[in-house]
Design brief:
68% of the residues lie in helices and 0% in strands. By secondary structure, it is mostly helical. It has one domain (21-163): Nucleotidyltransferases  domain 2 (Four Helix Bundle (Hemerythrin (Met), subunit A), Up-down Bundle), CATH 1.20.120. Helix 2 packs antiparallel against helix 7 (139-163) and helix 4 (89-100) runs antiparallel to helix 5. The longest helix has 31 residues, at 24-54. The two termini are 26 Å apart. The relative contact order is 0.14.
Length: 164
């Protein structure tokens, strides 16, 4: 995409493409590339969450599991050309279902609520009345959250296959 001479001469930021002149095919192509990048990172984080779980780093595994779901759903939003703002897996999924005009999958929404509950407490000591996050989490919670993240990732992969 080339910028006009007038834009280059008058703009404070001559090399920045203003959002209002970007052509739709450019946006769609780049959103699909973003989908791939975010999904790849979600899969990488899943491997990381498993390694952390296997090594007894349960709170860190839980946080990475959360990241799997968040990044996967953000990838899904990129896939349908929606901007994925925010961190709540539940809110991101609600945006997706609203955008495609489909009823929410309640089981998936319950999984998202479970994941959202761990976003802050898995990392910050002041989210607990006493102790630290690494003392607050155990293998069973870590495994449950890891499985929840895998379900979200599988949902995203199914949805994108259906829309391909």
């Amino acid at each position: 995409m080339t910028l006009s001479k007038a834009h280059r001469e008058t703009s404070r930021y001559p090399d920045v493409i203003p959002f209002y002149i970007i052509e739709l095919p450019y946006i769609t192509r780049n959103m699909r590339e973003e989908y791939k990048r975010w999904l790849s990172e979600a899969k990488w984080d899943l491997d990381t969450a498993k390694i952390l779980h296997e090594n007894g780093r349960y709170n860190a595994s839980i946080f990475y599991s959360y990241q799997v779901a968040e990044k996967a759903v953000k990838a899904l939003l990129y896939y349908i050309n929606e901007a994925p703002w925010g961190h709540s897996v539940r809110i991101l999924l609600e945006r997706y279902f609203e955008a495609i005009r489909k009823h929410k999958d309640e089981e998936l929404m319950n999984i998202a609520r479970e994941l959202d509950r761990h976003y802050i407490p898995s990392r910050y000591p002041n989210a607990h009345p006493a102790g630290t996050p690494h003392e607050a989490y155990d293998s069973s919670v870590s495994k449950r959250v890891l499985q929840a993240a895998e379900k979200v990732l599988k949902f995203v992969e199914r949805e994108t296959l259906e829309r391909a």
